[in-house]
Specification:
Elements (H helix, E strand, L loop, with lengths): L6 E4 L3 H13 L4 E4 L8 H4 L3 E2 L6 H21 L5 E2 L3 E5 L2 H16 L4 E4 L1 H7 L10 E5 L3 E3 L1 H14 L3 E3 L4 E7 L2 E7 L2 E4 L2 E4 L5 H6 L13 E4 L23 E4 L1
Parallel strand pairs: 1-2, 1-13, 2-9
Antiparallel strand pairs: 3-8, 4-8, 5-7, 6-7, 10-11, 11-12, 14-15
The structure holds flavin-adenine dinucleotide.
Length: 257
């Protein structure tokens, strides 16, 4: 256990671990990454790992483009493994109103240099034979979309942060962010106090609870989702499967929002 750091990061999911890595890489500050459970063990490794490039706002598209570049460079940059596949994806509209949305999406995607096009129903069926096109109004292809192995990302960032000098503290829950005279002075944890002038709350779905423990209100609301995992679906094709694919994507994880 340490008793001081320049920057304390709460939460070792994808966001916290990446923050720790990029700060540690600068080599200018003592970084401590605190995690109440095992490093990178909560939401981040359980994601589907899909990267959808075509978003509604220009800002989001530019952010995702940076994320894609980061994923491609991840192993070269961090020295950690990350399996990813640029599979592309199909977006299917069943109603006329949704077909109009697809036309807008294509225009916006082209404006940002994305590989997007409208497909005929036959072409869509050839690309994905399990897609039944009866009742489909329009289909577009987004060639830039990809997926990656989410189990590798947060842990990889955390290991790379450690290799650059960050201190990893698993099984160390932050119980309170210390604030005096309007300034942050550190955190209390289940393993003792750490003094630090900068604290990053990257606690994911628990961000609000962590902030509320020191009287700060973060307008974040978590909502329940349902997830069911099936056996592989016959005839569903993955263009290329990740080596240690854990039944992700078209092979069996279904999410309802
Ligand atoms: C089923 C599912 C599928 C998803 N699919 C996708 C997808 O395909 N594409 C996509 O982009 N996104 C997807 N997401 C969303 C994505 O997983 C999350 O947005 C992302 O993982 C959040 O990362 P995070 O670092 O903010 O949170 P987390 O990974 O949850 O990390 C937060 C960490 O903070 C720790 N923590 C909490 N409180 C404390 C405390 N007091 N002290 C110390 N540590 C604390 C937690 O233990 C946790 O490890 C999916 C999510 C789910 C659940």
């Amino acid at each position: 256990m340490i008793d001081s750091a320049d920057i304390v990061i709460i939460g070792s999911g994808g966001l916290g671990a990446a923050t720790a890595y990029y700060l540690a890489k600068r080599g200018t500050h003592r970084i401590a990454l605190l995690e109440r459970l095992e490093i990178g063990s909560q939401t981040s490794p359980r994601a589907a790992g899909m990267v959808n490039c075509l978003r509604k706002s220009d800002l989001m598209i530019e952010l995702i483009k940076r994320a894609v570049a980061g994923i491609r460079q991840f192993s070269a940059d961090t020295g950690q493994p990350l399996d990813w596949v640029q599979s592309g994806s199909l977006k299917v509209a069943r109603r006329r109103a949704d077909a109009e949305v697809i036309q807008e999406d294509i225009l916006r995607g082209r404006r940002h240099g994305l590989d997007v096009e409208e497909l005929s129903l036959d072409a869509a069926h050839r690309l994905n034979p399990s897609l039944q096109t009866t009742g489909v109004a329009a289909v577009m292809r987004i060639g830039d979309d990809m997926y990656f192995n989410p189990a590798q990302l947060a842990v990889g960032f955390a290991r790379a942060a450690q290799a650059n000098g960050a201190v990893l503290l698993p099984n160390t829950a932050v119980t309170c962010i210390l604030i005096a005279d309007g300034e942050v002075s550190g955190v209390d944890t289940t393993a003792g106090r750490i003094h630090a002038p900068i604290v990053v709350d990257a606690a994911g779905a628990w961000t609000r609870q962590v902030a509320e423990a020191c009287g700060i209100r973060v307008p974040l609301v978590t909502t329940a989702q349902q997830l069911f995992v099936t056996e592989p679906v016959p005839d569903a094709r993955c263009p290329s499967r990740l080596a240690d694919d854990q039944n992700h994507g078209c092979c069996g994880v279904h999410e309802t929002l």
